Each structure stands twice: as C-alpha cells, then as structure tokens.
Hints:
The chain is of the alpha/beta class and 179 residues long. Helices cover 38% and strands 22% of the residues. It has 5 helices and 8 strands, in the order αββββαβαβαββα. The chain has helices at residues 2-25, 73-82, 105-119, 130-134, 165-178; strands at 34-35, 40-42, 48-50, 58-64, 90-97, 123-126, 144-149, 154-160. The strands form 2 sheets. It has a 6-stranded mixed sheet. Strands 2-3 form a two-stranded antiparallel sheet. The radius of gyration is 18 Å and the shape is globular. 25% of the residues are buried.
Amino acid sequence: MKRRxxxxxxxxxxxxxxxxxxxxxxxxxxxxxxxxxxxEIRDLKNEVTxxxxxxxxxxxxxxxxxxxHSQNHEFTVEIEENHAAGGxxxxxxxxxxxxxxxxxxxxxxxxxxxxxxxxxxxxLADVDRTVAKAWDLGDCNNQFVLILISKQGELVFxxxxxxxxxxxxxxxxxxxxxx
Length: 179
C-alpha cells in the first residue's frame, strides 16, 4: 500500500513538473511584432482609463504580478539609474496584474500609490487580465513581463519571467531603435 502511494505521488510530481515547464515555455500567441490596441484598465483610484501617451510615444511597460514584484529587480534598477530606456520618444509605466495575485488588491494599490507619490511614476491596475488577453500575452501569472509598444501600436518586444543575459541584450538592442 505504501509503495503504491509513493508511486502515485511520484507520478503526480513528475506530471506537475512537466505542466510547469510547458507553461513557462509557451511563446506568445502571435509572433512579434504584431498590432495591438489601447485597452481600458483602471488607475490606482479605480477609475477607468486608457494607457497614456498611446500613439504619441513608444510605451515601455512593466506588467507585473505583485507576487513576483522583485523578479528582475536589479535589471529594472539598472534601467532606471542609467536612464538606459529613457528618451524623448519613450514613456514608461507599470501595470499591476491584479487578477493573478493572492494579495488583496486594495493593499497592492495602496502600496503603489505611496510609491508613485515618491517617484511620480505612472502605475495602472489590470483587474481582470485585460492586457494579457487583448495583446495575446498568454499566461502572465507569477511573471514579470517587459513590453515595448511602438507609437504605431505594435507590440515589438515582450519577455516574461526572469530575464536572461540574452534577453537583456535583446532589450537594449531594440530600445536603441526606439529612443
């Protein structure tokens, strides 16, 4: 009896690993670049809004599941401090993926409001995966997603999860084109 339980648990563990690996390796539903539309999401006061500067500037978006807010932290600090992604043609903003977090949305938004008071950043809230669905991003649960949308409304860069050195190099290469 114990042997059967051990075998069964081992099978469940192996299957769950296979599913987790498959989940992480899935590419975007559409190849890059592809056209996307501006979406209606929420600001931190829960008011409906569209993404600012759409069509006026290229948008550098940090789409973050609050459960993984520190994923790629060193890289985002590097971008900020070195103004590596800055430029007159780029507008940066954060979007909180609130549907996939276990944290209470009001607490997450409160923390974000305090942070924006300090750094004057734009942070919006996606309460029902609007961004992920509208732009065919696939599963963004437990993911830090780095996105670049051109002024023309094309999704030109998208990487999910912990960024590799190769991903970072690809980002720096493409961001130079859009400064």
